[in-house]
Design a protein that fits this description.
With 256 residues, the protein is α/β, with parallel strands linked by helices. It has 10 helices and 6 strands.
Length: 256
């Protein structure tokens, strides 16, 4: 065992080398590489609802045989957006409608009321639809619309949903389309257009041009249009929306 004098000499030598603070009682051998513990393997028992991937939602969506089951599955899905929202915004309108509108994501008013397109953008949408003889709650399916969104939960600060977030909920949206089985689909804005058409082309180039949405249940014609919220910010583009509404009206008349 070292004597007191030996320990004092060792301490003085360390101080000469610049050591001026004791950080631990145990000796650390700096000449030996530290042992890094192996990462803990992920548990195979993690609940499916806590794994917000497209593969997970594919499996869940496929089991939904009606709108009530789909609503419950979406509400139970453990996506991080859920923690910052009040309500799961599922849909509004007549489920028998021949026209289905797919929007982007709920905003503040939609999150409060639990319905899509109920804020200022929704009020403008209702006026746009009325101009061509459509209404979300019309009893006649030929004059009604059914409305939902790509994302059911409000993103914080009303931000635009990411492509990854859209992809997670895409199987639910496709299943939603199959259950409603509309004759025509309107894609309101960039987010639904890019997600459902699997494109990077922006809405300004896609709007007004008929395309096709493919789901497990089949292929249906769709019309990308400018989002009402965009039109409120850029009213000079309302003439483009009017042209697209006339295009939609003409196609509806063709299928009646």
């Amino acid at each position: 065992m070292d004597s007191r004098d030996d320990m004092l000499a060792a301490l003085a030598w360390q101080m000469e080398l610049g050591a001026d603070e004791a950080i631990g009682d145990a000796f650390i051998d700096r000449t030996v590489a530290p042992v890094v513990p192996a990462p803990k393997p992920a548990s195979s028992a993690t609940p499916l609802a806590l794994q917000p991937t497209q593969g997970a939602t594919d499996a869940i969506a496929a089991t939904c045989t009606d709108l009530d089951a789909l609503r419950e599955a979406i509400a139970a899905h453990g996506h991080p957006l859920k923690s910052g929202a009040r309500h799961c915004v599922f849909a509004d309108g007549n489920p028998a409608a021949r026209v289905m509108i797919v929007g982007e994501a709920p905003g503040r008013n939609e999150d409060i009321e639990g319905k899509p397109f109920v804020g200022k953008g929704g009020q403008l949408l209702d006026r746009m639809l009325a101009a061509i003889g459509l209404a979300r709650h019309a009893e006649d399916p030929a004059k009604a619309v059914y409305i939902t969104n790509i994302i059911p939960w409000r993103p914080a600060q009303n931000r635009t949903p990411s492509a990854e977030e859209s992809s997670v909920f895409l199987p639910f949206v496709r299943r939603h389309i199959d259950l409603i089985d509309p004759a025509l689909i309107v894609l309101m804005g960039n987010t639904p257009t890019k997600a459902l058409l699997d494109t990077t082309t922006g809405i300004m180039r896609m709007r007004g041009m008929w395309a096709e949405v493919t789901t497990p249940g089949g292929t249906r014609p769709c019309l990308p249009m400018l989002h009402p919220a965009y039109l409120l910010r850029q009213p000079m583009d309302k003439h483009k929306a009017w042209a697209d509404l006339l295009t939609l009206k003409s196609r509806i008349e063709d299928i009646r």
